[in-house]
């Protein structure tokens, strides 16, 4: 409890032992509690002090509260997901998740800098800037040029839709000129190759709405399984859609063991994804479950040199919480 004087003393004792301090408390709030960057740097000059913020602290929105929907709206992501006239949210906390991933990368980079130079630093990862930059890669479109050469947006991205087959859904993604030629030859429509100029990437991009419409007209002539057999044979990218309630049984994910079943001490058996990254020399895995509130307090304090009676006193005073 950083409003408790003994709680503050615990954090001051932990900071010199830490590689990084990571927080999503607004920097001004941390400073009021006595843990601004300069105060923490005085305790550990090699500390990587990382803060996830809603908005960059050098901008006019620095003090605003931020939640995922706020960031999706302010970054243009909701307009990209829907339209400018009717925006839509991604049904996932994508702003929170992407900011967390960006924060991980930033802390890793800062730790590498410290290994090379011995120097710690402050790292700020604002949600709005992170999502706006992420979104701009495709969606700037003509605005990426100065002066602009066209409207915002990426026509092919906006034209992508699931394809209905005779008995379900499929995503077909003929991508290159060769892919489109192979596709139209295989379905007996070689006339479309010249009609839509699919060999020419510029003309193909200009005609992409018409090309996708033709593909959707053809798709109901075969079942999903028939399409998968054909598209695999002609080497055109594709896949059937996985249902969320069947994702743990998706053949590839099941074969690589992405989802593990674990025994949780209070919730029983749970299913959780393992770290998806693979390391040849330092394999990643689930070594312990996410902690319950205060579960590791005593363990961490012992590592910091606190004795049993000191820990009991801190818990009793509510300076720290222990599960």
Going across the biggest sheet, name each strand in turn. 1-2-3
Q: Biggest sheet, open or closed, and with what strands and sense?
A: 3 strands, parallel
Total strands: 8
- Order of H and E elements: HEHHEHHHEHHEEHHHHHEHEEHH
Q: Round the mean pLDDT to the nearest integer and report it.
A: 93
Q: Find the structural class using helix and strand composition.
A: alpha/beta
> How many distinct helices?
16
How large a portion of the residues is in β-strands, by DSSP E? 5-15%
Helical content band: 40-55%
The rough form would be described as: elongated
Please mark out the parts with pLDDT under 50 across 5 or more consecutive residues, or reply none. Answer: none
Radius of gyration: 26 Å
Q: What gap, in angstroms, lies between the N and C termini?
A: 14 Å
Structure overview:
The protein has 323 residues and is α/β, with parallel strands linked by helices. Helices cover 43% and strands 11% of the residues. The strands form three sheets. The protein has a three-stranded parallel beta sheet with strand order 1-2-3, with helices on both faces. Strands 4-5-6 form a three-stranded antiparallel beta sheet, with helices on one face. A two-stranded antiparallel ribbon has the order 7-8. The chain is elongated.
């Amino acid at each position: 409890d950083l409003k408790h004087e003994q709680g503050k003393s615990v954090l001051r004792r932990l900071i010199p032992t830490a590689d990084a301090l990571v927080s999503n408390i607004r920097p001004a709030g941390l400073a009021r509690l006595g843990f601004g960057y300069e105060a923490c740097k005085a305790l550990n000059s090699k500390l990587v002090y990382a803060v996830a913020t809603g908005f960059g602290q050098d901008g006019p929105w620095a003090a605003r509260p931020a939640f995922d929907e706020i960031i999706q709206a302010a970054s243009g992501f909701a307009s990209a997901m829907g339209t400018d006239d009717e925006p839509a949210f991604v049904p996932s906390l994508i702003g929170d998740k992407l900011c967390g991933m960006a924060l991980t990368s930033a802390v890793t980079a800062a730790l590498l800098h410290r290994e090379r130079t011995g120097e710690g630093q402050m790292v700020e990862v604002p949600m709005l800037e992170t999502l706006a930059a992420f979104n701009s890669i495709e969606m700037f479109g003509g605005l990426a040029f100065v002066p602009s050469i066209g409207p915002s947006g990426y026509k092919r991205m906006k034209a992508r839709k699931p394809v209905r087959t005779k008995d379900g859904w499929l995503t077909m993604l003929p991508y290159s000129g060769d892919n489109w030629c192979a596709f139209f030859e295989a379905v007996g429509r070689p006339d479309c190759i010249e009609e839509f100029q699919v060999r020419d990437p510029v003309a193909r991009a200009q005609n992409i709405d018409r090309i996708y419409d033709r593909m959707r007209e053809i798709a109901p002539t075969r079942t999903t399984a028939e399409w998968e057999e054909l598209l695999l044979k002609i080497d055109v990218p594709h896949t059937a859609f996985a249902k969320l309630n069947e994702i743990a049984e998706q053949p590839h994910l099941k074969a690589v063991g992405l989802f593990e079943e674990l025994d949780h001490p209070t919730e029983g058996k749970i299913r959780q994804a393992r770290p998806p990254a693979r390391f040849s020399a330092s394999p990643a895995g689930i070594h312990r479950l996410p902690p319950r509130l205060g579960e590791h307090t005593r363990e961490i304090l012992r590592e910091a040199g606190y004795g049993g009676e000191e820990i009991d006193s801190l818990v009793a005073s509510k300076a720290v919480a222990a599960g």
